[in-house]
Specification:
By secondary structure, the protein is an all-alpha fold. Helix content is 64%, strand content 0%. It is built from 28 helices and no strands. The longest helix has 25 residues. The radius of gyration is 36 Å and the shape is elongated. The protein starts with 6 loop residues before the first helix and ends in a 22-residue tail after the last helix.
Length: 529
């Protein structure tokens, strides 16, 4: 007899019938919720899955109005709690929790001295917060067990910290076009729901992640530091470096480009406080250039991106010199004679890999190359088996003709080109072959390739059963040597196999030209063979 359509009529005659209004409303609620549950079962509603949209919004709102007619706020609160517990997980349950909280608040206001009312209000608040937080996680496709466990434990602060450690923050730097959860917006809503100061949380995390856990600027050489301000290009190294991961998190935190975020970074980058390290300033400036556009930077600093990029590079060099116990500030570094600086660092730091790389980068950035310095750098890199840096250095100096006559240049190129063969034994793995192929392709950067020990390099290719890679060297060999190597290669593998391998090289971008048939060129893929 008691339903949302009839309960008001029953309330009007309740005193005549001797039935309390509270009982009429309670029966109305019980009957209506029972009908909802039966309908859900009949319609096959998945009770285990969170339903983002409302199924019974109007009905629940009318039920809240009905409960508001009750005279006893404690009973009204109990009925509201009963509704929340009976409804399936989803938006309807969240809506019901809002009504539950309102009734608990009314009860607490009417009976403020009652400890039970305070406990009831706290439970209602917690229930509403948890359900609304779970709703946000579901809306943003973040409803996974570790986060749901923190919701159940009612730890919103820990939840926010964990969300900013979500693997997708790194992944979106690898594949920008992917579909990723908007963690920033989810956190903003979770903070609002749980009455947390979102801005304060953001800056607490920045204070935690922007400084480095331990200064290690040697990982950022000028060769790596190309000002690609989308950090995805260095993601592999970032995954191994907690400080690099934290920098990516800071950049994501500030992607809204808010004015207060820009001021925070400017403050960090410009602090003269000795407790703020140069690396800290460097990271703040890199964040700034990553999250802000040039107009905003100009508006707040009066400087262009180009000027800030210069500051960024200077801070990078200063931080690396600090690691070598050579303190500089911005002005002293800008005004010092760079040739004298290079000489000073070389005298004291030439026996450390960090010092060698720093001198190389200073020479490259400020164009203070000379034969003596170049020769010394190459010699030390070979001595300490710094093959990756040797590769970068040789490519760098290929653009500086004035040092091409360095006595160490030919020896360094020979060392680099032979380096991947030193530990090879057939059969060679695809990884090892790829490394050999990549190193040999660098020969095109060598300004004096004709003077290299090409016969020895070709011999190493043949020993490793990689005769097809010799084609990379062919443009620099004499016709007589080409013919001899051609014969040795065909003694090692068949004509058809060689043709297939050369086609594979061509598919990887190696220019293998076709030519007419002749006695020394029967492959139809390379004039050298």
């Amino acid at each position: 007899e008691f339903s949302l359509l009839t309960y008001r009529s029953w309330v009007l005659i309740s005193s005549s019938l001797g039935i309390s209004v509270d009982n009429i409303c309670m029966y109305t609620v019980t009957n209506t919720i029972t009908t909802i549950i039966e309908t859900n079962k009949r319609d096959g509603l998945n009770l285990e899955q969170w339903n983002i949209t409302h199924n019974n919004k109007t009905t629940l709102e009318e039920l809240m109005t009905c409960i508001g007619e009750m005279k006893d706020p404690q009973k009204a609160t109990a009925v509201s709690s009963w509704i929340v517990n009976r409804l399936p997980r989803g938006a309807d349950k969240v809506l019901a929790s809002h009504g539950y909280l309102r009734m608990a608040d009314v009860w607490n206001q009417m009976d403020a001295s009652n400890k039970e009312s305070k406990v009831g209000l706290n439970i209602a608040q917690k229930t509403k917060d948890q359900l609304e937080t779970e709703q946000v996680l579901c809306q943003y496709n973040l409803a996974v067990k570790p986060y749901l466990d923190l919701v159940e434990q009612h730890q919103p602060l820990e939840l926010i910290c964990k969300l900013y450690e979500d693997p997708s923050i790194l992944e979106r730097n690898r594949v920008a076009a992917g579909e990723y959860a908007d963690i920033n917006q989810a956190v903003k809503e979770i903070a609002r729901i749980n009455r947390l100061n979102h801005a304060q949380l953001k800056y607490d995390l920045l204070d935690k992640w922007l400084p480095v856990s331990c200064s290690n600027p040697s990982n950022q050489t000028l060769a790596d530091f190309t000002l690609d301000l989308n950090p995805g290009s260095s993601l592999e190294s970032a995954e191994e470096d907690p400080d690099a991961v934290n920098l990516l998190r800071c950049i994501y935190l500030l992607q809204d480009g808010s004015t207060d975020g820009i001021w925070y970074l400017l403050k960090c980058a410009g602090l003269e406080d000795p407790m703020v390290s140069t690396v800290h300033k460097l990271r703040a400036l890199k964040c700034l250039l990553s999250v802000s556009d040039e107009d905003k930077v100009m508006e707040h600093t009066g400087k262009s991106f180009k000027e800030l990029t210069v500051n960024l590079k200077n801070l990078l060099f200063i931080s690396r010199m600090e690691k070598l116990n050579m303190p500089f500030n911005g002005d002293s570094f800008m005004n010092c004679n760079k040739e004298n600086l290079v000489e000073g660092i070389w005298r004291t730091c030439k026996h450390s890999t960090e010092g060698i790389i720093l001198v190389r980068d200073l020479c490259a950035e400020f164009n203070v190359w000379n034969n003596s310095t170049c020769n010394a750098i190459l010699t030390q890199m070979i001595k300490y088996a710094m093959m990756k840096e040797l590769e970068r250095t040789l490519v760098m100096i290929s653009n500086h003709p004035k040092i091409w006559n360095s006595p160490q240049l030919i020896n360094s190129w020979n060392t680099l080109l032979l380096s991947p063969f030193s530990t090879l034994l057939p059969p060679v793995s695809e990884t090892d072959e790829s490394r050999c192929r990549d190193i040999l392709s660098l020969i095109h950067h060598c300004p004096t390739a004709m003077d290299l020990d090409l016969e020895r390099i070709a011999e190493e290719c043949l020993k490793a059963d990689l005769g097809h890679l010799v084609v990379i060297l062919m443009p620099y060999l004499t016709q007589e040597r080409r013919n001899k190597i051609h014969e040795r290669v065909l003694n090692q593998i068949s004509q058809s196999e060689l043709t297939a391998k050369l086609a594979g090289l061509q598919g990887r971008g190696f220019p293998l030209l076709t030519s007419s048939n002749n006695s020394t060129n029967q492959l139809g893929t390379s004039p050298a063979l």
